[in-house]
Design goal:
Length: about 260
């Protein structure tokens, strides 16, 4: 998202990375298109919208697209896959996609998937960072945020698993138009290849705050936490992998989750 923002603002490439839904260059993702106003209310930027503003946001997006002379439009936000997005917003997104297709445009959804165990560790570290770095989050997040890994696994309702998010995206974009890529190597360069834009090298500043927590990653797994992960997720994630992933992707995604 940071790379796409910089590249678009530099006038490079043959694509539009809309400002609609992200409120200018400071916000790199289009979160307001999936959950209007949520990030603003958390003190993370974006617009001060309500769910009822979703239709207007998509009208503004359509206007920005229509006034552009480029053929390729890229919209990006992790929150598009969140299953708790309000039904009216999901319906508007689905209508927007269907309308684009009816005009003869091709619409694809690119998703990057990482190993499930690594994903759940990263999610835990993300919440630790948010609790430390954002005053609003620290004051308003529930008590399992930023605590030890075992408590996090036992007390958080992890309905936003990768499997749940990808199924949700398939219900919006259709299964055949999902492009699932494995999260490894330089994903920025890989994404550029997938969507057909020139990769001019990274222009991204490392997140030092994030690096502070990465040192904890290797110490999270113990016998008890591995057991909790297997008991809670092995069956559901295995079914998802059988349905959606290639044999190679399945093997990488489930590594460490099996009881073998």
């Amino acid at each position: 998202q940071q790379y796409l923002t910089i590249k678009a603002e530099d006038g490079e490439g043959n694509f539009l990375y809309p400002k609609s839904g992200r409120q200018g260059s400071e916000i790199k993702a289009h979160h307001d298109l999936s959950n209007p106003g949520a990030h603003f209310k958390m003190g993370l930027g974006g617009g001060n919208y309500e769910i009822s503003d979703a239709g207007t946001l998509y009208e503004v997006l359509l206007s920005e697209i229509s006034s552009s002379n480029v053929k390729k439009i890229i919209i990006s936000a992790e929150s598009f896959g969140q299953t708790y997005n309000r039904p009216p917003v999901t319906a508007i997104l689905r209508t927007f996609v269907e309308s684009a297709r009816s005009d003869g445009d091709e619409v694809k959804c690119v998703v990057y998937l990482r190993n499930f165990v690594e994903w759940i560790k990263s999610l835990h570290l993300l919440f630790c960072r948010m609790r430390d770095d954002i005053d609003f989050c620290a004051a308003n997040f529930p008590p399992w945020v930023g605590v030890d890994f075992e408590k996090f696994l036992l007390e958080r309702n992890l309905r936003e698993n990768p499997s749940g998010q990808i199924r949700h995206l398939a219900s919006i974009f259709s299964r055949k138009d999902l492009i699932i890529r494995y999260y490894e190597g330089d994903v920025v360069e890989d994404f550029c290849k997938v969507v057909g834009i020139e990769f001019g090298g990274r222009k991204i500043v490392a997140n030092k705050t994030k690096e502070k927590y990465e040192v904890l990653r290797g110490s999270l797994l113990a016998d008890n936490t591995r057991k909790i992960i297997r008991e809670r997720f092995q069956e559901s994630e295995s079914k998802f992998a059988d349905e959606f992933l290639t044999k190679e992707q399945r093997s990488k995604y489930l590594e460490g989750l099996s009881s073998e």
